[in-house]
# Entry
Amino acid sequence: MIEEIFACGHSFIHKTDPRCRVAAATLLCFVIALGRKMPMLWAGLGLSLILVLWARLNLAEVFKRLVFIWGFLVFFWVILPLTYDGDVVYRIGKLGITRQGIDLCTAISIKSNAILLVSMALITTMDLGTLGYTLNFFKLPGKFVHLLLLTYRYIFVIEQEYRRLVRAAKLRSFRPRTNMHTYRTYAYLCGMLFVRASARAQRVYNAMKCRGFSGRFICLHEFALSPADIIWALAALAAAACLVFMEIFL
# Structure
């Protein structure tokens, strides 16, 4: 089952209206992603760290999630400084490390970490069901919202089916190797997983029709903006405006 470690909390951000959080996260992520100047990017990273601390997230869990993106960024640091055109600051044999390549890697690293931290502070602090209803409020396509909610609900059911098939193969003395029998077995396993997922989807659809599903999920929680939510939204807008100001004038 998908763990929502950050969704449970009692910080001010957890209590803020989900619509304000989604809007603020979208705005800040776009501003940071489109930024080019280092002062603005460092300010965006600092703001994202403040939001994480404000949300009182478990820093050990935050670090675990950052490690994944750091592993991906290593490839940029290995390749871009050696291949990006610019002023060479250091040579390794016939290869030259360029200042522009280092600057580009630094910008990509800051943006990636800042966007991930903003998302963790503002988006993962709500459960996925609430996120789906919030996206529906912002008039995202209903099919997309339904797909998100149903995927969240049944992804671990498909995982159970997969584990059942793997266990059945092991009971029949299957041992993965680099040969055609192994490739064929995994192909059959994937095919059976798709077949069972399709059958499960049809049963779920029939069950929903029997319960009067009309194409719209009903939210049990009514969203209501409080004065604190409005102040928080204005503060987020002011922070985004400050980042834009730094991008333009610094």
In short: The two ends are 47 Å apart (CA to CA).
